[in-house]
Amino acid sequence: MAKNADRDGGGVLRDVSARGVRTRVLEAGSEGAPALVLIHGLCTSHRSFDDLIEDLSPRFHVIAPDLPGFGESEKPSPARYPYGVEAHAESVADLIAAFGVGRASVLGHGMGGAVALTLAAEHRELVQRLVIEDALAYPAPMSFMARLPLVPVVGGFAFKQLYGRTIFRSVFRDDVYAPGGAPPIERVDWHYDAFNSPSARESAHAVIRATLDTRAIIARLPRIAVPTLVLWGREDRVYPVQAAHRLARQIHGARLEIMDCGHVPHEERPRDFLKLLTEFLEGRRG
Asked: Of 55, 130, 206, 225, whose CB count within 10 A is highest?
């Protein structure tokens, strides 16, 4: 397990092999504390959780990877790595084993929520508690910019060649955050810089295509048998809040919390999010 430079604000960046892919992981907190794995969404990275790390570190052994194809992780071609929910879930399973933490609580956001659901269904021996945040689980209405990469021939070209910084910022402003919200531009630009290479764009496009059909995710929901918190933004325009209610009904015993924000509660309302998260992970109701 290779160690990289220390991160400002705490934590150490490490390079770990998962499914044969070099995977960048932020590790923070005490190795003796309960393990918590944070799984980011589409076209982002572990940096999505920057607002949480300092507060989580005293209580948990935090493991926050950049999934293969994203952030600072390796971006192999789709011929080498089968991008999609299942492959990413197996990569996270490899990471949990590599860090030797036994079972871990797992938080998944957006596309990372689908990865977390799959991990909990396929590797219940690895998951202690599950937090699903504004997750990909069901077919959802898509904005024009979300549909464009899926248009045959033209869509792939546009996504890989024409999506610039301005469009990337506008997606966060118009789709990801609640109306009137202010995306953290420095962080969004960091995500864009990580996305802005041919290999990263090809990886992201492969994930988008692979996650269009959610039937396998839905089929796994009855197999989830760990304490689960479904946490959602009331004004989510990516995966509307109706999906949260459906998900909470389909996962046995799941607890549901709705927050007044958009698609990324952990960035839009980090203090409130942290309170709900830590209460659940520590078995408290608040």
From this structure: 130
| 139 vs 232, more confident | 232
Distance CA 251, CA 113 (A): 13
Chain centre to alpha carbon of residue 71: 12
Q: Which of 40, 70, 122, 82 is nearest to 209 (CA)?
A: 82
- pLDDT value at residue 147: 66
Using the predicted structure, report yes or no on whether residue 168 has a pLDDT greater than 80. Answer: yes
Per-residue model confidence (pLDDT) at position 183: 82
CB-count exposure of residue 84 (10 Å: 0-12, 13-18, 19+): buried
Locate the domains of the chain by residue range.
Answer: 2-141+214-281
Kindly indicate whether the domain formed by 2-141+214-281 is annotated with CATH number 3.30.1330.20.
no
Other residues' Cβ atoms within 10 Å of the Cβ of residue 181? 17
Q: Give the residue-averaged pLDDT of 117-146.
A: 91
Per-position DSSP letters for 118-174, written without gaps between them: HHHHH-GGGEEEEEEES---S-----HHHHGGGSTTHHHHIIIII--HHHHHHHIII
* Band of residue 153 on the pLDDT scale cut at 50, 70, 90: low
The pLDDT mean for the chain works out to 92
Model confidence band, residue 218 (pLDDT cutoffs 50, 70, 90): very high
Both structure tokens of 209: 């295509």
Q: For residues 126 and 110, what is the distance between their CA atoms, to the nearest angstrom?
A: 21
Q: By three-state DSSP, how is residue 225 classified?
A: coil
Cα separations (Å) of 227 from 49, 214, 251, 254? 22, 22, 9, 7
> Partners of 173 in the beta sheet?
none
89: tokens are 């879930």
